[in-house]
Write a structure and sequence with these properties.
With about 375 residues, this protein is of the alpha+beta class. It has 13 helices and 18 strands. The chain has 3 domains: about 160 residues, ATP-grasp fold, B domain (D-amino Acid Aminotransferase, Chain A, domain 1), CATH 3.30.470.20; about 80 residues, ATP-grasp fold, A domain (Dna Ligase, domain 1), CATH 3.30.1490; about 150 residues, Succinyl-CoA synthetase domains (Rossmann fold). Helix 2 packs across helix 3, helix 5 packs across helix 6 and helix 10 packs across helix 11.
Length: about 375
């Protein structure tokens, strides 16, 4: 789960990580009042969306005259911000962070992620902050410092010092930097984060280090331990179909293709999407109904698939294990009847109660296209797309 920058900075401040003075606002009037409270110029207006690259999309504006903040805010609020990370549809701008402008002498990157290969957190830092860390790592890998962390021992002070020296800190700023890194790691562990990032951590004119930007992603599977953080979720920043799927415990991700896919199991989902691309088509989604799906969940999943206007063909590829083929068949027939689905539906079933599942589909009176193998299913999809 993603949260806004101002929410992430509230968490930073609670852990003693220094951040600039600023106020979240939702109206032009609130933005003007926030600028007056800051009492300094320039003032920075930052669109609050769940995506990076805001500066490239016009989502960050520096206003030299605090008296103009309200009028500038009016041009930003209520728009959709398009950045390299949002796609062409953009994200709605419902809030702004009005923040004090700072003198910046140096920009540093520091982040923490889970290295799944090492089964441990890793701190990544670079003296080339303010840029995409992927680009820095690709073009100048020697400028990136990585510090794996023992999950049991945690991040040790000597490691934090090594990171500070590695990004070029000197004198008192070595201790400042190491302290920030240690606090960031504590937040990462305490709040069950999957990703925390400061980009940039800035060295200001007076020698202090401040987190100019803040990014936190939370592990959805741990939100039951953090009811306060779960309440920060803003569904307006998410795809409506993904929001709807989550209400039924379905794993759905919207893609940009024309074949709607329903499968059970992430591995089968990936194989099915590869198969679709192999025939020259594109998957419209990743929909994994899981092993414990009920017929009701199957019905809702198919409703979500066909509500995507990009979908021209539906491919259902199920290997029955915990999810029995007859359960799948009942859910699919119910959904097709309820919605009067006119799209072609290709079904490939194998596994537990497969004969019963096929009989339910055959006796439904509905025009399903059956396939015995994955290859045959792909051929059927290709035939429908060709017409």
């Amino acid at each position: 789960m993603k949260i806004y920058e101002y929410q992430a900075k509230d968490l930073f401040a609670a852990y003693g990580i220094p951040v600039p003075r600023g106020y979240p606002t939702r109206t032009p009037e609130e933005a003007g009042d926030a600028a007056a409270r800051l009492g300094s110029s320039p003032v920075v207006l930052k669109a609050q969306v769940h995506a990076g690259g805001r500066g490239k999309g016009g989502g960050i504006k520096v206003v030299e005259d605090a008296g103009q903040v309200a009028s500038v805010a009016a041009t930003m609020l209520g728009t959709r911000l398009v950045t390299p990370q949002t796609g062409p549809e953009g994200k709605p701008v419902n809030a702004l962070l009005v923040e004090e402008g700072l003198t910046i002498n140096k920009e540093i990157y520091v982040g923490i992620i889970i290295d799944r290969r090492a089964a441990a957190p890793v701190v990544i830092a670079s003296g080339e902050g303010g840029m995409d860390i992927e680009k820095v790592a690709a073009e100048t890998p020697d400028k990136v410092v990585t510090e794996p962390v023992d999950p049991v021992a945690g991040l040790r002070p000597f490691q934090a010092m090594r990171i500070a020296y590695g990004v070029g800190m000197e004198g008192p700023q070595v201790r400042q930097m190491s302290d920030i890194v240690l606090r960031l790691y504590r937040l990462f562990i305490d709040k069950d984060c999957s990703h925390v990032e400061i980009n940039p951590l800035v060295n200001t004119g007076d020698g202090k280090l401040l987190a100019l930007d803040a990014k936190i992603n939370l592990d959805d599977n741990a939100l039951f331990r953090h009811k306060d953080l779960a309440a920060l979720k803003d569904e307006s920043q998410e795809d409506p179909l993904e929001v709807e799927a989550s209400r039924y415990n379905l794993n759905y991700i919207k893609l940009k293709g024309n074949v709607g896919c329903m499968v059970n199991g992430a591995g089968l989902a990936m194989a099915t999407m590869d198969l679709i691309k192999h025939i020259g088509a594109e998957p419209a989604n990743f929909l994994d109904v899981g092993g414990g799906a009920t017929s009701g969940m199957i019905t809702q999943g198919l409703k979500i698939l066909v509500s995507d206007p990009d979908v021209r063909v539906v491919l259902i590829n199920i290997f029955g294990g915990i999810l029995r083929c007859d359960t799948l068949a009942r859910g699919v027939t119910e959904a097709v009847k309820q919605l009067s689905i006119a799209l072609p539906v290709v079904v490939r079933l194998e596994g537990t109660n497969v004969e019963l599942g096929r009989r339910i589909l055959a006796d439904s009176g509905l025009n399903f296209s059956y396939a015995a193998t994955m290859g045959e299913a792909a051929e059927r999809v290709a035939q429908f797309l060709a017409h």
